[in-house]
Specification:
single chain, alpha/beta, Spore Coat Polysaccharide Biosynthesis Protein SpsA, Chain A, two-stranded antiparallel ribbon, 13 helices, 11 strands, 47% helix, extended, transmembrane, transmembrane helix
Length: 379
């Protein structure tokens, strides 16, 4: 027995050695696999980061563009890759002046206005499309405008909206400041405005770079005039708000000027029968008026300013620029805000350029209309 037990001891040691070798081999294999996974992950994330950087510096996914920068030329908008469909009756461009602290407000405005476009798809509205031109009004707003545009460009779920960023740079604002210098308030003017209208009004008139703001806005207006598919425009600020029925009441369901002038029943000559019939269907009348180019050039609504209701009317203090829907035709005639300033203008006229621009359009024969509904909210 003792001999047998002594003989078995070496066998047990041999088995333990074999088990140890197996465990060591497994451990080495696991370490090797772990190392390979680490190396693969590092390679993957490195390529992913470079791909992400490439994406962020490239054009939007839904637009096949060759350029890597989102600008086209100097002081202009990036042209869309596909022109507007020929069957679109109304294409509205919202020119949004962006403050550098209002990025989220601008995003919310774009989303809410797109909802109005979705509503217009249902019968009996004419077809409607829209795009958005973002205008930085100062140097600090340039990267903000760019980031807002990229926010929409990187949304691959939908190929719309077209959100454009105005191509303005430091040089533009430097030159604009030189042009605006003669419109700055003197100390005497600032004191006079404060005594007459209060300190808050003095700050808006004398301490804001209003002339520079409107120079930047004029670039967007010039781009609109070159837009072959645009029919209308709204020039607004990023903190304004619109009722969901704004475009419905000011454009889609608004009777044409001929209806307002001649009544709601028009006559149409039926060439096939030689008879004249009355067009009583409102949609048909609107479509015929659109085909003939009969439309309102300027439409405004009732609005609120800081929560105070204001009845819409064509007069200084009774209209706000953001609440006006312009036709492209009248914008081309008016030419811009700076061109609307009378000779000898100073800081107060530069501050009132909104109204002076609208007044110039009225003098040029704009067909103007007021919708007495609360559809615009000015902040």
């Amino acid at each position: 027995m003792n001999r047998m037990s002594l003989d078995r001891k070496p066998i047990r040691r041999h088995k333990r050695e074999r088990v140890g070798q197996v465990l060591l081999s497994c451990l080495v294999g696991m370490l090797t696999l772990t190392l390979l996974r680490i190396l693969w992950s590092a390679s993957f994330f490195s390529s992913l980061s470079s791909t992400s950087a490439s994406i962020l510096s490239s054009s939007p996914f839904h637009q096949l563009q060759e350029e890597s920068k989102p600008w086209l030329g100097s002081q202009g908008l990036r042209a869309p890759s596909v022109s507007n469909a020929t069957n679109i009756h109304h294409h509205v461009r919202f020119i949004i002046r962006v403050h550098h602290e209002q990025a989220d407000l601008v995003k919310g405005m774009v989303h809410s206005l797109l909802y109005q476009q979705q509503l217009s798809v249902s019968f009996p509205y004419p077809t409607l499309s829209m795009d958005f031109a973002l205008v930085p009004t100062e140097v600090r707003g340039i990267p903000v405008v760019d980031s807002i545009a990229r926010y929409f460009w990187l949304n691959t779920a939908e190929p719309f909206p077209h959100v454009y960023a105005l191509d303005l740079d430091q040089t533009f604002f430097d030159v604009a400041a030189e042009r605006a210098a003669p419109f700055k308030c003197s100390k005497e003017e600032a004191r006079e405005v404060a005594n007459r209208a209060g300190k808050a009004a003095m700050i808006k008139i004398c301490r804001y770079d209003n002339h520079v703001f409107y120079q930047a806005t004029d670039v967007a207006v010039a781009e609109l005039c070159r837009c072959t598919w645009c029919t209308h425009a709204v020039i607004t600020n990023g903190d304004n708000c619109y009722h969901p029925n704004y475009l419905k009441e000011t454009l889609l369901e608004l009777d044409p000027p001929s209806d307002a002038q001649y009544g709601t029943v028009q006559e149409r000559s039926d060439s096939s029968s030689g008879l004249k019939g009355q067009i009583r269907d409102k949609k048909t009348r609107r479509m015929l008026a659109w085909e003939r180019g009969e439309q309102w050039d300027m439409v405004t609504t009732d609005f609120t300013t800081s929560g105070i209701l204001s009845r819409g009317a064509w007069g200084l203090g009774f209209v706000d620029l953001g609440g006006i829907l312009f036709s492209k035709r009248i914008l081309m005639s008016a030419q811009g805000f700076i061109a609307s300033l009378p000779s000898g203008s100073r800081a107060e006229q530069a501050h009132n350029a909104d109204w002076l621009f609208a007044a110039r359009a009225l003098r040029l024969g704009a067909r103007a209309h007021v919708v007495n509904q609360l559809l615009f909210f000015h902040n």
